[in-house]
Write a structure and sequence with these properties.
With 210 residues, the protein is of the alpha+beta class. Helix content is 48%, strand content 14%.
Length: 210
C-alpha cells in the first residue's frame, strides 16, 4: 500500500507502482482506440445539432481534479447554451435546459466521451471519482468531511459512486458519493476497476443516465 499526502491530510491509497503504471497504460491504450469513434461521433453530432441542438458542439467546464487543482473537462453540449452557470451547489439539475439530442446523449453517457482527451493529457482516468464543477467543489471542501480525500487520485470518466448512485445532486448526495469514492481510493485494485468498467458498459447499454 502506498501513502500519499495532500493538503495536510494523510491519505492511504491502495495499489503499488505496478498497479498505477498499468492503470495509466490502460487509460492511454483505450482512449487512443476510442479517438476514431470520437471523431465519427463528433461529425454526426455536428450534423444533428443543426436540427436538434443548435449551438456549439462541445462544452468546456472548469472541474476540480487531482490534488484539488482545476482543469477543464470536455463534453458534448447537452443543454441550451448559457455563458453563466446560475445553478448553486445545492440546486437540482436544470432539466428544462436539456435539449432533445442532449437527453439522448446523457441517457447513453455519450456526452462524456470527449473526456478521453482529458485522459490522454493526464488530467483524468477512465475510472475514478467523478470531478465536480470547480466552484461547487470549493464549497464541498469546507462542508463535507472526506471530500478532499477523493481528489488524491485522478478523477474518472466513470467511477464506483457513479454506477451505484448515478448523478449526485446537492450536499446530501455528494456526502454519499464522497464516502463511496473514499472507499474506492482505499481499496482500488484491478478487480474493482474491472467491475466498474463492466458496470459502466451495462449503464450505457441500459440507457439509465440523466
Amino acid at each position: 500500500m502506498s501513502t500519499y499526502k495532500i493538503i495536510n491530510d494523510n491519505i492511504f491509497i491502495s495499489g503499488d507502482k505496478f498497479f498505477w503504471f498499468s492503470k495509466r497504460f490502460f487509460d492511454l491504450f483505450i482512449s487512443i482506440l476510442l479517438i476514431p469513434v470520437l471523431l465519427i461521433l463528433t461529425l454526426l453530432i455536428i450534423f444533428l445539432n443543426l436540427f436538434y441542438n443548435k449551438g456549439p458542439t462541445f462544452y468546456v467546464q472548469k472541474r476540480m481534479g487531482k490534488d484539488c487543482k482545476p482543469f477543464y473537462a470536455l463534453k458534448f453540449r447537452t443543454m441550451v447554451s448559457s455563458e453563466i452557470i446560475n445553478r448553486k451547489h445545492n440546486d437540482p439539475l436544470e432539466l428544462e435546459r436539456i435539449t432533445r439530442l442532449g437527453h439522448f446523449l446523457r441517457k447513453c453517457r455519450l456526452d462524456e466521451l470527449p473526456q478521453i482527451i482529458n485522459v490522454v493529457y493526464g488530467e483524468m482516468s477512465l475510472i475514478g471519482p467523478r470531478p465536480d464543477y470547480y466552484e461547487h467543489a470549493l464549497v464541498f471542501l469546507d462542508t463535507i468531511p472526506g471530500y478532499r480525500i477523493r481528489h488524491a487520485i485522478r478523477p474518472g470518466i466513470s467511477g464506483l459512486s457513479q454506477i451505484r448512485l448515478g448523478y449526485a445532486q446537492g450536499v446530501d448526495a455528494t456526502k454519499k458519493k464522497s464516502k463511496i469514492d473514499v472507499y474506492y481510493i482505499k481499496n482500488v485494485n484491478f478487480y474493482l476497476d474491472f467491475k466498474i468498467f463492466i458496470g459502466t458498459i451495462m449503464t450505457v447499454l441500459k440507457g439509465i443516465g440523466i
